[in-house]
Amino acid sequence: MTVTVVTDSSACLPAELRARWGIRVVPLHILLDGADLRDGIDDVPEDIYARDGVSTAGTNPEELTGAYRNALADSGGAGVVAVHISAALSGTFGAAEQAAAQFDGGVRVVDSRSAAMATGFVALGAARAAAAGADLDEVAAAADAAVQRTHAYLVVHRLDNLRRSGRIGSAAAWLGTALSLKPLLAVDDGKLVLAQRIRTVGKATASMIDRVCDVVGNRRAALAVHHVANPQGAHEVAAALGERLPDCEPAVITDLGPTLALHVGAGAVAVCVDLNPGGAPAGV
Fold first, then answer.
1. Are 274 and 149 in contact (CB under 8 A)?
2. Does the keyword Plastid apply (predicted)?
C-alpha cells in the first residue's frame, strides 16, 4: 500500500513525470462562451489568453471528492496527499479542504503557496516520499518541507491580463497606470507580488535570471521554465541558467497552460525553483 499524490492542472507537470511518480491531476476550468472547458482534458483554443470574456474557475468540491475517493481506494487505504495551487491565487484549496473533510483524515491537503511547477515540485517531493515507503504523515511532511524550498519568478510582456484577473494584488498601486512596464514578479507567501519595476523585457528577464542564480547559489536545485506562446524566450532563459548553474540538471521547459496563461498573457516567461537539500535533482 502506497500513499497516492493528487495535484491540479496548474502544476504544469509534464506527462512523463506524472506517469513516473503516479501523480493524479484534477483539472482547473476555463469558462468560454458558455462552455466549461477542463484544463488538460478538453480542447482549449491556443490563443485563449487573447480572447475577451474568458474567465477561469478552480476545481469544485464534487470533482475533488471523486478524485480523492478513487485515489484513496487505489492507495489501499494508505491515504492521499493533495497538493494544490496557492489558496491566495485560486479557490481550489478551499474546495479541496471541503472535499478532504469527508474522508476522516485519509486525505491531507497541502497549500503549495505557489503555482506552476513550484506546485509541481511540491507534488513531486510528496510522490518521492510515497514511493520510498513513507506513511501518510511522512508524505504530508515531505510536501510541507518542499513548500519551503520553492521559489517562482515571472516576467510579463503586458499587464492587461493581470489587471483583468485581479492577480497582482498590492502591486497594483505601485504599478499605477504604467502599462508600458515589464515588471519582474515573484510569488511570495502564496501571493503574486511585484519584485522589481523594470522598463524592458530584456532587463526584466536578466534580472529574473540573476535572482534565480542568487537563490540557488552553489547548491543543486531543480529548475522549470514556463512560457506563454514564447518558446524561444523560454529556451533562452533555460540556456542561460544552464550556463550559470552547471551543477543543476537542465531545466524542464513547458508552456504555462491555458488557465495560468489567461492571467499573465502572451510572451510571459516564468522560472520555478526547488532547492533540494538532499542534493539529488528534485524534478526527475
1. yes
2. no
DSSP for residue 128: H
| DSSP class per residue in 49-105 | GG-SS-EEE---HHHHHHHHHHHHHHTTTS-EEEEES-TTT-THHHHHHHHHGGGTT
Q: What pLDDT digit, counting tens, does each position of 97-149 carry?
A: 999 999 999 999 999 999 999 999 999 999 999 999 999 999 999 999 999 99
CA distance 35 to 236: 36
Q: Minimal CA–CA distance to 154: which of 133, 196, 185?
A: 185
Angle at 262 between CA 238 and CA 63, to 5 degrees: 105
Per-residue cell: 274: 526547488
Digit-coded pLDDT (tens) for 200-244: 899 999 999 999 999 999 999 999 999 999 999 999 999 999 999
- State the Cα–Cα distance between residues 12 and 35, nearest whole angstrom: 22
Helix (H, G, I), strand (E, B) or coil at 280: coil
Across the beta sheet with 221-227, what order do the strands follow? Answer: 191-196, 184-188, 150-155, 269-275, 221-227, 252-255
> Does the pLDDT value for residue 71 go beyond 70?
yes
User: 21-59, pLDDT tens digit by residue?
Assistant: 999 999 999 999 889 999 999 999 888 888 888 889 999
Q: Are 102 and 96 in contact (CB under 8 A)?
A: no
pTM: 0.92
Place of cell 504544469: 12
Q: How many Å from the N-terminal Cα to the C-terminal Cα in the chain?
A: 23
Dihedral sign for Cα atoms in the order 115, 83, 166, 229: positive
Q: Are 35 and 72 in contact (CB under 8 A)?
A: no
